Amino acid sequence: MDKQTAEKIIINFAKDAVNIYDDLIEMLPEENKENIELEQKELMEAINMVENK
């Protein structure tokens, strides 16, 4: 497996994680959402950095 293929696989896993965060945010009480939303934002920023390099 070459580096580009590995990066695409990892990005797809990360995007799946972003979707899981969406589900968690919907289920959590309001006071617990802030940390999850922050983690999700950081993950999305990391995905964008890798995709746009």
From TrEMBL:
Can you name the source organism? Answer: Methanobacterium paludis (strain DSM 25820 / JCM 18151 / SWAN1)
Q: Can the keyword Coiled coil be found in this entry's annotation?
A: yes
Q: Which residues form a coiled coil?
A: 21-53
The domain of life for this entry's organism is: Archaea
Keywords of this protein's UniProt record, alphabetized?
Answer: Coiled coil
Q: In its UniProt entry, what is this protein called? A: Uncharacterized protein
